[in-house]
Amino acid sequence: MKTQEENERELLRKMIQADEESRLYDTIKTKKIFTLWQCEICKDEFVTDNKSRYQMVGCKCGKSAVDDEEGYTRTIGKPKKLKTFNKDD
After folding, report:
1. What gap in Å lies between CA 46 and CA 2, rounded to an integer?
2. What pLDDT is stored for residue 72 in this prediction?
3. Cβ neighbours, 10 Å, residue 36
4. What phi and psi values does residue 26 have, to the nearest 5 degrees?
5. Per-residue CA distances from 35 to 44, 78, 84 (Å)
6. How far is it, in rounded angstroms, from Cα 69 to Cα 47?
7. Secondary element (H or E) of residue 12
8. Which H or E run contains 65?
């Protein structure tokens, strides 16, 4: 019979394995897409990619920023989308 500690280790191992499989599936499933943005306030240009998790990228003045993930895009301020391209372009 397994001890509680052994059960916890097994559960942790399964969680880590599921996370690694999920990340591998995400990598295979979609291409990395880059987007070029421009702050309408300071005219600075910056690039986001859809594979970065929880990464808010912003302009030099700090008044515009974008968190561009595969499932959603969150914007702050006045960013303007200029161009979208994938890794192969």
Report:
1. 53
2. 83
3. 14
4. -60, -40
5. 14, 15, 4
6. 12
7. helix 4-29
8. strand 65-68
Would you call 34 helix, strand, or coil by DSSP? strand
- b/e burial code for range 43-82 (CB count within 10 A of at least 16 → b): ebebebbbbeeeeebbbeeebbbbbbeeeeeeeebebeee
Chain length of the chain: 89
What's the pLDDT score for residue 16? 72
Q: Using the 8-state DSSP alphabet, how is residue 60 labeled?
A: S
8 A C-beta contact, residue 9 and residue 15: no
Per-residue pLDDT in tens (0 to 9) along the chain, 89 residues:
678 888 778 777 777 776 666 666 555 556 778 899 999 999 999 999 887 777 889 999 999 999 988 778 899 999 999 998 886 54
Alpha carbons 67 and 48: distance in angstroms, whole number: 7
The two tokens of residue 25 are 């599936």
